[in-house]
Amino acid sequence: MTGLTSASPENHPWWRLSDSATEFPQHNSVDSLPLLVVESPLCRSVIAPQGAQLLTHTSYGRTTSNNDQLLWLSPTALFVRGKPLRGGVPLCLPWFGPHNEPGKPQHGFARNEDWQLLGAQADSDGNVVLSWGFGQYASQPHPEFPWRFSARLTMTLGTRIELGLEIQNCDTSPMPLSWALHSYHPVSDLAAVRVRGLAGCDFLDNTRQLERRRQQGDVQFNGELDRIYLSVPDEQIIATEPALAIRGSNCPSAIVWNPGYDKAAALADVGAEHGQEFICLERGNAGTNALSLDAGASHRASVSIGVTG
Ligand code: TA6
User: Fold this and answer.
1) Atom of ligand 1 nearest to the CA of 206
2) Is 8 domain-assigned?
3) CATH code at position 66
4) Mean pLDDT per segment of 10 residues, for the chain of length 309 residues?
5) C-alpha of residue 97 to centroid of ligand 1, in Å
């Protein structure tokens, strides 16, 4: 059962059900996954219930002739049920990165499973607000993670993207938690891109066995870059055309990633020709910012993404 059949959105002129074969016919995909398409006066967004993953977001914020893509979806993304989708905003949960026990999936399992659409409405500013729930492990834990927990992701979609996440430990002992809203953003010229707002922050360098180093100046891209920045300021700017501002609240880590030429070439759902088209600037709790969530406690965080300057 998909996340859309159990709580289908009421009819509304601004959103409708669709599927990946219809929306992305150019993709050579195994499955046709159900999708929700939002088309409002402010934006067009496509969302997969699998992972509650925002895949594309076109903002009509600046001028009608100049629509802005806030997210990058790989042109070679594969739509396969139960497998991560390359692009947009996958949610890594309940752990970020590889698990220290072999055999457990990278970045947790929440991005590979269906979320339930709990509600869809338009707010008074013309944003579409979607609420997604991940409650299937609130009473019985997932086989890979022995804590009962639930999560809710609220998407406010307009000229900006606002994502609100709440994770609750439904169990009786403290729950280890790391997570990230692993957003992919288009860049016009990777060699010229700068990420501002991280100077002076310590980072764990994933290209050097998580060696801890300190950022000098803006982040620049010259080959593979894979870093977990720790205890960062709320806002980072991706200086590209158009520049994007990413603002996080209660998510102290910023993960910055581009695979570089060789790793992009080795990823079937990226490819050498597309590796230069994006960077990830993700916010969450990762590395030494990982949490222990008390029994019954909740963690709330939010991320907003919009054009700036
Ligand atoms: O966020 C950066 C990272 O953890 C990288 O190490 C890289 O592997 C990337 O995520 C993509 O991971 P994925 O499992 O989606 O291929």
Assistant:
1) 6
2) no
3) 2.70.98.10
4) 53 93 90 96 97 97 75 97 97 97 96 97 97 98 98 97 98 98 97 98 98 98 98 98 96 98 97 97 98 98 95
5) 7
